[in-house]
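User: Fold both of these, please.

Assistant: Here is the first one.
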Amino acid sequence: MTSFCYAHPDNEAHDPGPQHPERSARLAAIIQELQALPKLVWKEAPKAPRDPLTLVHDAKYIDFVFSSVPEEGYHGIEINDSISEYDTGSDTVLCPRSGDAILRSVGGALAAVDDVIHHAADNAFCLTRPPGHHALANKAMGFCAVNNIAIAARYAQKMHKLNRIAIVDFDVHHGNGTQTIFEKDKSVFFASIHQLPLWPESGYAQETGIGNILNVPITPNTPREAWMEAWKSNIINRLEKEDFDLLLISAGFDAHRQDPLGSQNLESEDYGAITKDMLEIAAQKCEGRTIAMLEGGYDITASAQSAASMTSVLLGC
């Protein structure tokens, strides 16, 4: 299989500060690990224009985000008194290069959609940083300023006329932003397996949207085998019953046993196994068209090895 990986130095240059969990070193380690995969095709993530961001986000909110990028130092996106409806949080920290990083993340995601739909690649992995699955239409939170995967889904529907998108999120934190954006839209199916209790304290099983949302909460310190069984019996079982034209994956690697922000017990090779499960279904449902986008994962070594495990399966290894 042909797999493209989209990256750009601007995404490493996004620097929320030396003590911030979502630090540049995590991306550098992933890139180094993936460079050992000889079949992987590297692509420079283009810089997206701002217009596609408004497929998901309020235009005034996008202006607010980019106006919050500092000329020097660090700036946590806070409530802007002149735009009081934008309830934003300072855990999402911007630096002078963050605006470019945001546009490269979106640009890589949109390029991946184009290339996979046009059969230039069978699948893709976008090294989106800052991550996106916590960002709501008008709110930055959880290290996320804009919702990369939601923008890609809307772009695929608008530009490529795809009828239905499936999004699977296996980050240890619930993808609350993605759920909120799509929970009243049957054209997008969203499934998330995540730890509860854990920030952002959402994603309970009874949160089903209009029948298009599946949440599989996992208790802290769940044994590895039990996590995998919940994955198979819930996420995979449901995905087999859904129809979709493109599979998007929010790939967070913080359910790994070494991750400092989660309390799960997955090993790096498990991410290859769950990717294999999804690719087998995508081959039946959508000609295998699959795009993964980087979300969380805060142990440097574990995240890099997990990303390589996933990408090896994308390559058919």
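And the second sequence with its predicted structure:
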Amino acid sequence: MIAHYWNDRPTLVASVLLLAQIGLYYGMPVKEQIPAVSPWSQFPNEFGAWRWASETPIDPEVLAALQPDDYLQRTYVSAQRDALVSFLVVYFRTRRNGRAPHSPQWCLPGSGWKDVSARVVPLAMPGQPNPPAVNEYIVQKGTERLFVVYWYHQGSHAVANDVIAQLYALPEMILHGRTDTALVRIIVPVAGEQTDRARAEAFQFARDVFPLVSQQIH
């Protein structure tokens, strides 16, 4: 396994860059500017066809492990499509204290969910020729199945990979004086074998919410 790791050129390059970045990250005399991001509790209750349905606090044990500076966990519903969506944003004002989001591909299996499939896909949006890449992730526990879409915001960048998000942190700090980061996660339950319907609902919500999240962070 170790030999395979070192023969994996992309992983090796990313590892070397991250190690170099760590030295610069904590050693540079750049003064970080903590951005004045509005509290996530002020995120819109209604947008597009979606309406606020409920708000759920993160489990205290999970919250203690993550230690985010702010977060939002809500359920939205669309009467038009009879869709129910769980929406989570976990936000950190800086990476320089060592705290950052955890990937759902670590957290969900740790809660008993089993991987069914995972891939990176573009989040196609009208008028955007270079759509951001996001993760499409399906998990199952017993007869329950969830369709998950998630991505990371690293300053002005939206990316699918947490390692890439970390790589963006250094230029963001140098150019803009900020290293704030956020995980955005969308979950839609899959009814029976209706995976395509859950996919359509999750990606419609992602397209509708993406510009609002970007506006909140930027």
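Residues 31-217 form one domain.
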